[in-house]
TrEMBL record:
This is ABC-2 type transporter domain-containing protein. Belongs to the ABC transporter superfamily. ABCG family. Eye pigment precursor importer (TC 3.A.1.204) subfamily. Keywords: Membrane, Transmembrane, Transmembrane helix, Transport. The keyword Transmembrane helix applies. InterPro entries: Plant_ABCG. It comes from Amborella trichopoda. PANTHER family: ABC TRANSPORTER G FAMILY MEMBER 11 (PTHR48042), OS09G0472100 PROTEIN (PTHR48042:SF19).
Amino acid sequence: MGIITCAGVQVIMILNGGFFRLPNDLPKPVWKYPMFYISFHKYANQGLYKNEYEGLAFPNGLVGGPATIIGESILRETWQMEMGYSKWVDLGILMGMVVFYRLMFLGILKLSEKARPVVKGFLVRHRKQATKALDPMP
């Protein structure tokens, strides 16, 4: 059950992480706000691309344009990346997400362990009451 659930979450996060569709092309109500910002693929892609493109210059094949294009402009204009922070901030956000999700799932696990006896007790009482109501002989 966990593998199926995680696969579904992964697909949703990949679809709006900024790789298949650029951030400005995502529909605004749900996919961009909040799904794009909680997708860990966004921060992984941005950190990877910032690591590879920042500080580099590439030859420009466009007629009438500058001779070279710097990596930062490719990230900003082509890939629509947020350039207000470094790749290390992206890595820090990813590490924070790892810790947060671990703690969240630990909390869910502990809550389900505590709730299981309460739910079973409720179901047993409910079944006893239902069988008493159906019993013709008091």
